[in-house]
Design goal:
Helicase, Ruva Protein, domain 3, two-stranded antiparallel ribbon, 400 residues, transmembrane, T4SS-coupling_protein, 3 domains, Type IV secretory pathway TraG/TraD family ATPase VirD4, transmembrane helix, membrane, 6-stranded parallel β-sheet, alpha/beta, single chain
Length: 400
């Protein structure tokens, strides 16, 4: 009871008869008695506006968060791996100062972080998508830095643009007049390396029989290399079985190519002679105007660029030599660089046109400390799987 009702003598509520009350009259009474004559907007207008502003402010954060949450629920949460981003986002995230790659967006260049260059770069795409153009732009920047490069150039496009005679650049192509004299036995720093060189030339094939007819020529070739012959002498020995017999006499290899096992002997010597055809192409010192070259010496000085050139018609004959030279250079450059040595880039266009490179896997997985980046191009994963088998997947996961 209110004090006024108590003063009038009321002690309890009394329920009267039911009757209808007009809404308009009740509204007028509430407005006058409770809201002091104000309507709802006048009483709560400022509070409603403030509430609306707060809700809008919260929605600015809640909607993007809910959108991301929905994507996580639909696609899962990314722990690591590649992320699709625009060129602008790429540069904002990585803030790179290394090699620049032009994009379709006008005026925007993607820049790699300097630390990522040593993690290697792979360029994949079908013929005509612009792999060569991209490699040319990268080589231009490498040249501007004053660094060295080893360029596998099966189409001759890179050597036309970047060969500099005054830089002491070298063309490794026995069918080119600029090819220097190269003696394979001079690459040996010790006798044990002969087998490593032989493994680059004689490639394994499937099956046990294939392994025998690969490993045995490797052993014989490595044994012949220990005599440190000139290239011409080595080719002459490999072309005359009697010369080989004379040099393996008294070793375990004598029994393997015994004349008593004619079929086995012919198979081994036939495999051994395949490489002689490629070595026979190499010019003599007189034919190369006295110019000499060695992968071992070049790896120490790193003066000039190296171009391994050829044409489509010459590719089959030059493939063993090109593969050997690249493998030798990788082997020599796997060591941690000395103070003052230039960085040496490997730029290998159409990698699948080379033989299997035994040192290539090591260069990708272990070669970051040597700071000699590899840029390699290919058309599809299946190409490399044919050459490297199950190792292809591991190799392709290494480049940054």
């Amino acid at each position: 009871m209110s004090p006024a009702a108590t003063a009038q003598g009321f002690t309890s509520f009394a329920r009267g008869p039911e009757r209808k009350i007009a809404d308009e009259a009740l509204y007028s009474w509430f407005r006058a008695a409770i809201f002091g004559g104000d309507d709802v907007l006048s009483a709560y207008g400022s509070a409603l506006i403030e509430t609306g502003v707060v809700i809008l402010f919260m929605l600015c954060f809640a909607v993007p968060w809910d959108f991301k949450r929905g994507k996580r629920m639909k696609y899962g949460r990314l722990l690591r791996g590649p992320v699709m981003s625009s060129p602008k986002q790429f540069n904002e995230i990585l803030k790179g100062e290394g090699l620049g790659i032009t994009t379709d967006e006008k005026g925007i260049i993607i820049r790699l972080p300097l630390r990522a260059e040593a993690k290697h770069i792979q360029v994949m795409g079908d013929t005509g998508v612009g792999k060569t153009t991209l490699l040319i732009r990268m080589l231009t920047q490498i040249e501007d830095r004053g660094e060295s490069a080893i360029v596998y150039d099966p189409a001759g496009e890179f050597s036309q643009r970047f060969f500099r005679e005054n830089r002491n650049d070298v063309i490794l192509n026995p069918l080119d007049a600029r090819m220097p004299d190269w003696v394979i036995s001079k690459e040996l720093r010790n006798a044990a390396e002969a087998r490593t060189i032989a493994a680059s030339l004689y490639q394994p094939v499937d099956g046990k029989a294939g392994e025998f007819f690969t490993e045995t020529p490797q052993k014989i070739f490595a044994h012949l290399m220990k005599y440190r012959p000139s290239t011409q002498d080595l080719v002459a020995w490999m072309s005359h079985p009697d010369e080989i017999d004379r040099r393996v006499k008294g070793t375990e290899l004598e029994a393997i190519i015994s004349k008593d096992a004619a079929d086995q002997r012919n198979g081994v010597l036939g495999s051994l002679g395949l490489i002689a055809d490629s070595l026979r192409l190499l010019p003599s010192k007189e034919q190369s105007n006295g110019k000499e070259w060695s992968a071992t010496e070049w790896a120490e000085k790193r003066e000039g660029w190296i171009f391994l050139t050829g044409t489509e018609a010459e590719q089959e004959a030059l493939r063993p030599l090109h593969s050997l030279w690249i493998d030798l250079l990788i082997l020599r450059l796997l060591t941690i660089p000395k103070e003052g040595q230039k960085r040496a880039w490997f730029v290998l266009d159409e990698l699948a046109t080379l033989q299997r490179l035994p040192q290539f896997h090591s260069a990708l997985t272990k070669g970051r400390k040597s700071d000699n980046p590899i840029i390699f191009g290919y058309q599809g994963k299946a190409q490399l799987e044919v050459i490297y088998g199950h190792l292809a997947e591991v190799m392709l996961s290494q480049p940054a």
